[in-house]
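Step 1: inspect the first sequence and its tokens.
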Amino acid sequence: MTSGASIADLLVLEPAERGHGHEWLMHLAASARRRRLGARLVFAVHPGLAERLRRELPQYPDHQPIVLPITPREVELCNHRRLAVSGLARWWVMRRLLKVSGIRRGLFLELDHLTLPLALGLPVGSGRSVSGILFRPSVHYDREPGLRLAERLRDWRKDLLYRLMLRRGAVHRVHTLDDAFPAFAQGRYRSGDKVVELPDPVFPLVDATDADRELASRAPADRVVLVLFGVLTARKGILALLQALAQVDSPASERLAVFVAGRVDPAIRETVHAACAALATARPSLWFHLEDRHLGSGEIAGLVDRSDAVLAPYQRFVGSSGVLMWAAGRGRPVIAQDYGLVGRLVREHGLGTTVDTTDAAALAGAISAVATHGAAGIAKPERLSGFAVRRTPEAFAAGILDPLERRSEAPRTLENRHPEPVTE
């Protein structure tokens, strides 16, 4: 792409404060700045995320995204626990902002919420179109062993909604982090060619400072170190991990140091702390530390660098995993679930070992094996680096920005100020 090329204006909606959104928006902003794009990029986001982006994005007025906080009421509805409510709310917010801004293209960072309103054909406005990142396609894993009735019903519903959504003219493109889904979609759905792979970006290497390494340095030097990090929900596997650690035999527990780091979901906080207390009683020889708070990228880097392996004991999770990308980027193998995209990537690319993480005894066995024999045998460094090399932040940003490129109009710029709330 030549310097000064322009892309169609793009409005990106992300109403969640935590998760992949922050990282992905930073990648888009950095890529647009490097390319010296003259078009408007507008990030309509959770107010907390807006504050963080304004603090962290360098000030380049000619190539700076406009960061627009959505309202607290919009945040509440867009993050409603019922998918139908959150989807309709996100559709409505996108439609409203496209209308008042004059921008003709919108991007949802998590399209999974939008399958119902888009399948129903709810309009986004004349001449406007939307795209999005489909984070959890699962219909192509219908031959997974042990698939449950609830999962089959979930995938039947998804299959119907995908089929209808892809037919809609307002749906321009469906990006997916699952590299097996585009071929499946193209063979199954009319307009399945709208589905394209988007590389899940490996987080750029971060230079951890001495302060960042302080947490990691607490582990005893003579132990095999395992790390679980991120937002600690039941789906993330923290409760399953605590149950498994209580079943690790005493010789293995004497060799282990385990960090669990990240903000614990308030819904399970009491249960987690009770399980930690029970673990200390059941396995006093195990070194275990829970750091119940949000960690900066430098601290995560320090923990992963100190580890021998990274834990990804998701509980039947079908989507992609930032944890997997962090581990591969820093050359660490994983102990992961054997299900869905995560399980397939680990097996196909030799990124570690997979196990039925819903079975505490099976997970304990995998952990004991690493404690006894070390983590070197479950993944080869060259496989980890090979997996990470094409999943760069620039490749991720290019997958979104390149299709929007146009050269027919002179670039436009807007001053990147803190805009007034948008109202109709």
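Step 2: inspect the second sequence and its tokens, then contrast the two.
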Amino acid sequence: MHNEEGVEWGLLTNGAEYEMYRYDGTPSGTQLGAIPVGHLTQQTHLVRALSKSSVQAGESEQIARRIHEQRQAIATLRSNKDDIASDITQLLTSRIGDAIAATVETEAKELIDRVVASLENGDAAAPVASPPARSSQIQEPKHTFANTIRRSEIEGDGDAEVAIFPTRESGIEFLLENNAWGFVRIGRSPTYVGMYVAAPAQEVQFVAKVDRIVPAREADLARPVGSYTEIARFDPEKQVVLFKPGSLHRLEDPIPFEGRTIQSLRYTDLRRFKHAATTEDLFE
């Protein structure tokens, strides 16, 4: 397939992989992506680049540029992982204090690993188009939740321990699919779990009662552990917190953020959890 400038685009296969090339007059051209045969349908951004409409409209050039920039980003993140994690740690400790340094550095490195995994899966390569505004395109919120509860309705001993975990919005999917949270390091056996959802929400939105805590490799999850890279990278040394059936609820009165951001696992008790006006009230 050629565009108006005479640049040729092609998809070759060696039996195990599809290889997408851009031929622009150089002897070998430029390889834009190698895709296992069984994964072709998952790499829609590469397939789209070879469509007749994309080539003729010049969109393929944009996709190729993004793929090239993405590969450079992956190489930079891998080769400078320690330096980038150190920069993140210095930024946060300068604002919050040195007490969080070790935790931040570990989390920063895991964040870089997740970003690299996301880029390698092609999540950032597809250009984002703005669809026409039509009433038929209005969608329900991604995460709907049937079980809700007010904190005053939570039954239990006021001294019962509550583990507060932070998560991004994407982590809610893990909660709903598995009635559990992972992959984490936890050295206690709390009675409850509270989930703090980071920006833009910035509030404790969920509560659940703990059933048991198991090694990550033994957890019976809805999907293969490797598919959860958007939430947390699987680590066989970490654990999964399983909730009692039916105990996971979205809070009707979530606890809004105030003060320091909840960046890692912290503990409180059920009494504070039920009466807190903000996250500042959860901890001593």
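Step 3: confirm your contrast with the notes below.
Residues 59-79 form the longest helix (21 residues). The chain has seven helices and eleven strands.
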